[in-house]
């Protein structure tokens, strides 16, 4: 059960072994996810939505990502841990981007970073990789750009955006990214991207012709009930499980059933 490395993920792609990836934001959840055998744990800036209750990922700060990152790293022994660079910390100022990247790596102990964007921020990504920090790219639907898109609809459905995505995938591989997340794009295009490069392509809403899959843990456990895109498969209904447990506790407190004699000193 040796630690998963970027090198090992490349070997998995070569062998045709699919890569499992799931988000976590805290110590307890990350411990469960790691011990279940996950390959990659992503400290996503989706923490903004599922932990903080914000509408978008934009409010997430560097300090908040570091807090979540450190908490997750404390719970993980085997999986590779990647932390999202939050909105505004990798946006065309390579020196500043590297400073932020180094802070995350130093203060969390994570193994890698994930960064949204292609050609526009390629110098930032190159500088971070050149400093010895492994970077996973993120293309297709990039939630940090939601105000530019104005919609969470499927991306790269037209020829121009599809071609740009393929160009960006190759560019990210060329500067040394160890993998790329493709979010909410046509399955056929994602499959083409996976064939075009040697680094693993991890999909979310990008079909099955890629090298691995990632989901947000609150979504796949059914904690969140308000978010039901077509690409989401729910593996549990924790919303119901937790609601019933909490209601039973309330009832037991109200009826003085809890605590009983055995539960008292
Ligand atoms: O923040 C996140 O959870 C992500 C995944 C959805 C890929 O970036
Ligand atoms: Na993210």
UniProtKB/TrEMBL annotation:
Stored SUPFAM superfamilies: Phosphoenolpyruvate/pyruvate domain
Chief site of localization: cytoplasm
Pfam family name, one: Pantoate_transf
EC number, as in UniProt: 2.1.2.11
Cofactor: Mg(2+)
Subcellular locations according to the entry: Cytoplasm
Reaction equations catalysed: (6R)-5,10-methylene-5,6,7,8-tetrahydrofolate + 3-methyl-2-oxobutanoate + H2O = 2-dehydropantoate + (6S)-5,6,7,8-tetrahydrofolate
Cofactor binding summary note: Binds 1 Mg(2+) ion per subunit.
GO molecular function terms attached to this record: 3-methyl-2-oxobutanoate hydroxymethyltransferase activity; magnesium ion binding; methyltransferase activity
EC category: transferase
Binding locations of Mg(2+): 45, 84, 116
GO cellular component, as recorded: cytoplasm
Binding site for 3-methyl-2-oxobutanoate: 45-46, 84, 114
Gene Ontology terms: biological process: methylation; pantothenate biosynthetic process
Keywords, ordered alphabetically: Cytoplasm, Magnesium, Metal-binding, Methyltransferase, Pantothenate biosynthesis, Transferase
Quaternary state and interactors: Homodecamer; pentamer of dimers.
Biological function: Catalyzes the reversible reaction in which hydroxymethyl group from 5,10-methylenetetrahydrofolate is transferred onto alpha-ketoisovalerate to form ketopantoate.
Stated family: Belongs to the PanB family.
Record's protein name: 3-methyl-2-oxobutanoate hydroxymethyltransferase
């Amino acid at each position: 059960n040796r630690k998963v490395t970027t090198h090992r993920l490349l070997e998995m792609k070569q062998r045709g072994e699919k890569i499992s990836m799931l988000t976590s934001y805290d110590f307890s959840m990350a411990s469960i996810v790691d011990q279940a055998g996950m390959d990659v744990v992503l400290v996503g800036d989706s923490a903004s939505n599922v932990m903080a209750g914000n509408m978008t990922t934009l409010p997430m700060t560097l300090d908040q990502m570091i807090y979540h990152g450190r908490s997750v790293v404390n719970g993980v022994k085997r999986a590779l841990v990647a932390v999202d660079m939050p909105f505004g910390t990798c946006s065309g100022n390579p020196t500043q981007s590297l400073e932020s990247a180094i802070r995350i790596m130093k203060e969390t102990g994570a193994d890698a970073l994930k960064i949204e964007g292609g050609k526009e921020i390629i110098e930032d990504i190159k500088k971070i990789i050149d400093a010895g920090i492994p970077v996973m790219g993120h293309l297709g639907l990039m939630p940090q750009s939601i105000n530019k898109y104005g919609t969470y609809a499927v991306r790269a459905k037209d020829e121009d955006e599809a071609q740009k995505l393929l160009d960006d995938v190759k560019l990210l591989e060329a500067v040394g990214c160890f993998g790329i997340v493709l979010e909410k794009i046509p399955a056929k295009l994602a499959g083409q991207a996976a064939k075009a490069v040697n680094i693993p392509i991890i999909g979310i809403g990008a079909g099955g012709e890629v090298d691995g899959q990632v989901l947000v843990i609150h979504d796949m456990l059914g904690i969140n009930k308000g978010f039901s895109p077509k690409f989401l498969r729910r593996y549990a209904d924790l919303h119901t499980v937790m609601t019933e447990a909490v209601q039973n506790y309330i009832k037991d407190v109200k009826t003085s059933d809890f605590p009983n004699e055995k539960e008292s000193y």
